[in-house]
Amino acid sequence: MAEFIPPAKPMIGEEEIAAVTAVMRSGMVAQGPEVAAFEEEFSPVAGGAECIAVNSGTSALHLGLIAAGIGRGDEVIVPSFTFAATANSVVIAGGTPVFVDIDPVSFCMDPVAAEAAITPRTKAIMPVHLYGHPADVVSLKKIADRHGILLLEDAAQAHGASLAGRAVGSFGAFGAFSFYPTKNMTSGEGGIVSTGDPQLARTVRLLRNQGMEQRYANELAGFNARMTDIHAAIGRVQLTKLEGWTQQRRRNAAALDEGLQGVVVPAVADGAVHVYHQYTVRVPGLDRDRFMQALREEWKVGSGVYYPIPNHRLPSLKQFAPGLDLPQTEAAAAEVFSLPVHPSLSQADIERVIEAVNAVAKAGA
Ligand SMILES: *Cc1c(COP(=O)(O)O)cnc(C)c1O
């Protein structure tokens, strides 16, 4: 049989290598003109918001939270069904993550559950645009406004996704994007904070660089969370390819939607543009792990589970969720897995994924 089809694959071309080489030859490799250009060029992806580049998506969340005023004793409502960085960033900013359940169709934060979790200590609601599908930030923004709290967006998986014609990362007080290699585009490591609030933007810029705007005139205690020009140069090249890759992801997803039988394919909410960071299916009633094993061993089709253990049950975070029961989160964690959808798949790869899934589903793994 043909080659193994990996569940994800970063696409790094000669252009990225040449861009890195040019920065290295310039002799100036730390944060500089490449970072400034990357911030400008990424802004349209975040709906025209001001962008501040940092060294990871986690740093984007962390610095954004501090700049938004989240600190000790402040509750931030987050989903549990996400990568741990979402809640970790709340904890390292000094706040308290309050986990709520998801909508079982979109896998994103359930607005009804979010509103029910608001207390006098709640400062913000931070949904995740999970798998590249926008969370219901239209409803969540209304809820946040009604209660006088902030909406914040973890957009780490959703470069280019939108809801009601508006880009994710432009709904909340800030959005946080990631450029980790498996994301829809990469800078090696890196992240961006997007915001429409000039004061928040300035605070993130200070926090990223020891609290300094003028050298040695430190205004607050900050971090070194700067992006290097080497990483920004990679990101700038990748950004020129993002739109084409997103279209390819969407075409691959459409072919999977059309061809797959016997599994629950991802739904797209009204008015949503899904950018398919992951193409995530459910196999209720079947053994998910055996299903994935059969795909790998019999068909050389890779797949992955995002995320098998909900955040509120992780040893690092369970202290924030004593006795909490999130049934939709638990069901998703037990049933979902993600099939290859990345832009480097060939037509034959897509056909093999479809044939494999349909055969395994029919055999009743
Ligand atoms: C990847 C990711 C992050 C963190 O980004 P890094 O760049 O890896 O620090 C945060 N939230 C979600 C949902 C992610 O998928």
UniProtKB/TrEMBL annotation:
UniProt cross-references to SUPFAM superfamilies, sorted A to Z: PLP-dependent transferases
Active site: 183 (proton acceptor)
Listed InterPro entries: DegT/StrS_aminotransferase, PyrdxlP-dep_Trfase, PyrdxlP-dep_Trfase_major, PyrdxlP-dep_Trfase_small
Origin: domain of life: Bacteria
CDD domains, per database record: AHBA_syn (cd00616)
Needed cofactors: pyridoxal 5'-phosphate
MF GO annotations: pyridoxal phosphate binding; transaminase activity
Modified residues (N6-(pyridoxal phosphate)lysine): 183
Keywords: Aminotransferase, Pyridoxal phosphate, Transferase
Entry keyword annotation includes Disulfide bond: no
A biological-process GO annotation: polysaccharide biosynthetic process
The UniProt record lists the keyword Transferase: yes
Family affiliation: Belongs to the DegT/DnrJ/EryC1 family.
Protein name, per record: DegT/DnrJ/EryC1/StrS family aminotransferase
Organism from which the protein derives: Galactobacter caseinivorans
